[in-house]
Every structure is written in C-alpha cells, then in structure tokens.
Amino acid sequence: MRVTQQMLFNRYVGNLNTSLTKLMDLNVQAQTQKKINKPSDDPMGMTRILDHRDTLRSLDQYKENIGTAKGWLGAADESLMQVSTILTRAKELATQAATGTVGADNREQISYELRSLFEQLVGLANSDFEDKSIYGGHKVDSPAFQQIMWLTTNDDNFGSSVDFTVNGSSDTTVLTQFFDTSGVTPVGGNMNISDANLGVRYSIDGGRTWKTDGAMTFNAGKGVLSLPSSGTSVDFHSDATIKVNDPTDPTVADGTWMWIRPSAQYIGDDEDTPPLVDKLGFGKNDVTASASGSFLDRNVTVRIDNSSPVDMNEDIEYSYSMDGGLNWVTGNVAQADTTSGSSVLSVANGGILTLASSGGNNTIQPGQQFVIRPHTAAINLDVSSSEQIQVNNVGKDIFGGIYMDPDLVLSAGGAILTLGSQNASRVFQSNSAPKMSISIQGNDESSMNLFEVMGNLVAFAETNNQTGVQQALANLSKAQSHIMNSVAEVGGRENRLQVGETIVDGLKLNEQTLVSSIEDADVSELMTELAQAQIVYEAVLRSTSMIMQLNLGKFI
Q1: More confident residue, 502 or 340
Q2: Is the CB of residue 260 less than 8 Å from the CB of residue 166?
Q3: CA–CA gap between residue 302 and residue 282 (Å, rounded)
Q4: Contact, 425 vs 456, CB < 8 A?
Q5: Looking at the predicted structure, is the pLDDT value of residue 386 above 90?
Q6: What is the sign, positive or negative, of the torsion defined by CA atoms of 374, 377, 381, 384?
Q7: Which backbone phi and psi does 373 adopt, to 5 degrees?
Q8: 181 close to 249: Cβ distance less than 8 angstroms
C-alpha cells in the first residue's frame, strides 16, 4: 500500500485535533466543575437535568409565595394583636364607666378616649400589606371599612320593621326621642312615623339639653328625620310604628329612643351568597339552575352529554371542566328524581349543580352548558404542588360592622343598610327604667360585632347610660374572644407556612443533590484525566514533529 505525505499529514492533523478537543473539553469541565455542559456531552443526562431544573424553578416560586404569604399573615397577626390590646384598654375604661361611683362628667371624660379607641380600631381594620388591603377580600385596592353613623334603638318592634339609612356625621352621639304633639297618645303608646302630629327632640350633649328644631317628614311611603344641629339625618324607607315618650320629661324611658352613633361600614368582598349559574346553549330558559357547595374558588363548566334531548324525569349524562373547557371529566350520570322533577349533578370537590323544572318545556338539549361562578373573597397562594394558603381575610367576619351585599337590596340612592340578622342585629329591649338607665339586651351574634359593640359603648358613655355601658362591657369581652379566635386562625395559617417552608427546603435540597449527581464532575478524577490528556496532546505534538521531518528532501 502506498503511503503518501498527504495521508500522513491528514492523519497527524486528525490526531492533533482529537487530542486537543479532548483536552479543551476537560479544561471546560475543570472550569465549570460540571461534566455536562452541553446536550452533546450526555443527551439523556441533559434531559434529566432540565426536568430537575423545572422542578427547582417551581420550588423557588413556592418559596417566594411562602415569603409573600408570611408578609400578609404577619401584618394580619400584628394588627389583630394591637386590636386586642386596644380592647383591653376599652374594657378598663368601660369597667370604670359601668360603676355607680362615677357621674355624667366622668363618663363623658371616659367617652373621649373610647371614641379615640374606636377610630384606632377602624384604622387597624384598614391595615394593608404592600399597599394591598388585607381585610377587604378581593377588593385590595381600597380600605376595607369606612366610618359611618348608625343607630341603636330600645324599641324592638320599631328596629325590626323599617329599613333606614343614616346620613351625615357627628362628633357626638345624637340621642333622639319621639312624642305626640297633640297629647292624645299616652306615653308608651304606639304612633306611626307618618303621623303629622309626631314630634321630635334630640340632644347632642348627652341628654343635658334638648333641641326641638328636628322634624319628621313623610312623603310617598318614605320618611326623613331631620336633625339640623347635629349634622345628621335618617331616611326611613317605609312607614313604621314607634312608642311615644313623655312630651315634658325626656328622662322617662317608656318610649322609643334612638342613639345615632359611630359605626363602620364594610365595603369589601364577602363569601355569603351562593355561586351564580349562567345557562348557555339551546333551551337555556327551560329549566332553573342553582349551585351550592365548594368549587375551589374557580369557575366550573358543566356540559350535557346525552345524545338526544332529555327531560327532567330522565337520567342526565354530563361532563364538567374546571379549567375553562381544556380538560373534561366525562362519564358522569345524574339519576332522575321523578318525584321532585329535579336532578342533582355532582362536581368534584363537593360542588353541586341542581337542575329543576321551571313549569314550562323542561327539556335539556345535548351540548347545553352551565357555567358556575363561585362568589369568593379569598386570595390563595400555592405553597406546594398540592396546598394553598389563604393570605387575606373578610373583614366583616372578624370586625363586624354594617354590611349588605349591594347586589341584593338596592334603592334609588344605592344600597340599603338594614337591621337584618346578616348584619348582627342591633335591636335592643327597654326595661322602662327612668333617668337614662335603659337596659340593653343583645344577642350572641351582635355581641361579636366589634364595631357595633364599640359604637354602642361610645354612645352609652356619651349619654351617661350606666346600664347600657354595663351591657356593652359584657359584649366587649365576647368581641375580644372572637378577635382572639381570629388571631389563632391566622396563627394556624402561619404555622402551616412554617411546615410548608421546611418541606419546600427539603425538596429543593433533594433536587439539587440529584442535579449535582448527574452534572457535577468528580474533581480528583477530572484532574487525573486532564493531566493524562495534556500528556497525550504533548506526545502527539512531539511525535508528529519528529516523523514529519522524514522525507526524500532530506537525502538529496
């Protein structure tokens, strides 16, 4: 076989490049301390590394979410502890005002600090984290509460029979009484607020002096109680019956009294109302649809899968999707209830869609869909692949206050705030005790409504009502217990974060160990291979330079 100089040269160059490439690769590994620096180094190993790095990025996001959740819950914990401290001080002041050894002047002095404490409580209820309200549900861009005027009455029938709105503001409690200007109705007798003979008197200095420039006007089924010197007025949205007071002696407690005093209105989100259901497709008005249960705070789409139209007395085949229709859970069947003319469709996580007869053509068409939209106020952050933590709170469930869903009751002027049970009843009974010593009887629900309890405490301290202060003091202890329960609930979530963080740290360390075992180089072995490659490369250079000198030109 003829060996040419060109063949020798190509072979020498190839050997040089091979040994140089090996040496360069080992140098790169020595610099990075990794044996896999590009996919061609180990395609299968690089695939595994990328998978582990995706997992690490997820764990880093969980870690970041945990840090954010700690901030939210830490702010809530701190604010609630401060609330408890303020309530402790309020109880000390209320205890002083509830004793018989202090007089009207002392209670007035105590009321100044109580009103200041009330305003501090409103400020704490509007606490935020990174400019986001922590007690407003999803409405994080505005305060959860606003201070308003509200009223308490000693007349149970009057308080429960009329809807009202309190307008304006006052720095002091406005104590209001009604009487019959004609003198016909006896003290304690009934009289409609629409009666033209209804007289009004009110006091803005705790009952020391009374003003008679107030008036009740009634027109088109609505009444307006004007109290000019107080800066407040009350709109009554229907007629109602009150008990008249003694027209000459305002200390007699046989009639209807009203304390127009401070409170706070919740203007955030709630989770009280059931989910809404939108009906899509043919025949969408043929049946009524309602939802209940848990839907994990996300929209759920339910699709009818029957191959032909189905009546309410037949089995319904259906699928549901919890991701907007990308994935469907199929093969579900709702057994017909022939007695009630309705069907119950179960969705994952405890949600239920009830389809009922509407009295018309109750036929459901194939492919018809129902979109369930839960009413939610919770903000949840993922802290692991299977766990979420709620970082915010619904303020009214902690602090109480005045609230009604504006979607439920509307008037020409907006939402009507009522004395319904959903607001924690503010209706109290009178024991007809004289000398401004009216017994105030609350219930368990109202006694946990912090802003209402504090509002009443301020009102009764300002109007020298010892018995009312005593009842407010008892309710204040219950309200503080409710606050401490909320503190414990927030603390429980913080403890879950601690456990979750430990788990994430452990998973992250495990993933990093796995990645290291795949891509990290053995330093001692790498140094040995690098030295060997250096020797090989130098040997190739030396032998090549010696061999390439042997040619015919040397012998001519």
Answers
A1: 502
A2: yes
A3: 14
A4: no
A5: no
A6: negative
A7: -115, 100
A8: no
Residue 119 to residues 131, 270, 529, 546, Cα–Cα distance (Å): 20, 23, 75, 96
Single-letter residue type at 325 = G
Beta pairing, strands 132-133 & 128-129: antiparallel
Provide the token pair at 77: 């914990």
**What are the phi and psi torsion angles at 42 (to 5°)?**
-165, 90
Left, alpha or beta for 280 (phi > 0: left; psi -120 to 50: alpha)? beta
DSSP bridge pairs for 167 = 233
- Total Cβ atoms within 10 A of residue 171: 10
Terminal-residue alpha carbon distance, the chain: 24
Statement: the pTM of the whole predicted model exceeds 0.90: no
- 445 and 424 Cβ atoms separated by less than 8 Å: yes
- What is the number of helices (H) and of strands (E) in the chain? 9, 26
What is the arithmetic mean of pLDDT over 428-436?
A: 30
Which residues does residue 149 pair with via DSSP β-bridges, in sequence order? Answer: 262
The Cα angle at residue 542 between residues 541 and 544, in degrees rounded to 5: 65
| Residue 551 burial by Cβ neighbours in a 10 Å radius (0-12, 13-18, 19+) | exposed
In whole angstroms, give the CA distance from residue 499 to residue 506: 11
Q: Which amino acid is at 480?
A: Q
Largest interatomic CA distance in the chain: 151
Contact predicate 263/402, CB 8 Å: yes
**Paired tokens of 17:** 């490049």
> How far is Cα 332 from Cα 424, in angstroms, rounded to an integer?
42
Q: What percent of the chain has pLDDT over 90?
A: 51
Give the pLDDT confidence of 303-325 residue by residue, as tens digits: 999 999 888 778 899 999 988 88
Report CA-CA distances (Å) from 364 to 205, 292, 330, 344, 401.
66, 20, 18, 14, 44
Torsion of CA 215, 218, 219, 223, to 10 degrees: 100
Quote the CA–CA distance of 298 and 317 in Å, as a whole number: 22
Length of the chain in terms of residues written: 556
Residue 428, pLDDT score:
28
Question: What are the φ and ψ backbone dihedral angles of 11, each rounded to 5 degrees?
Answer: -65, -40
Cβ contact 164:237 at 8 Å: yes
Instruction: Identify the DSSP state of 251.
Output: T
Q: Are 355 and 364 in contact (CB under 8 A)?
A: yes
Task: Please report, as a single letter, which amino acid is at residue 482.
Answer: H
For 530, the token pair is 């690098």
* CA nearest to 36, candidates 519, 493, 546: 519
Tell me how far apart the alpha carbons of residues 520 and 515 are, in angstroms, rounded to a whole number. Answer: 8
CA separation for the pair 155, 428 (Å, rounded): 6
Residue 470, amino acid: Q
Closest among 369, 310, 358 to 334, alpha carbons compared: 310
Burial class of residue 378 in the structure, from the number of CB atoms within 10 Å of its CB (0-12 exposed, 13-18 middle, 19+ buried): middle
Angstrom distance (rounded) from CA 381 to CA 388? 5
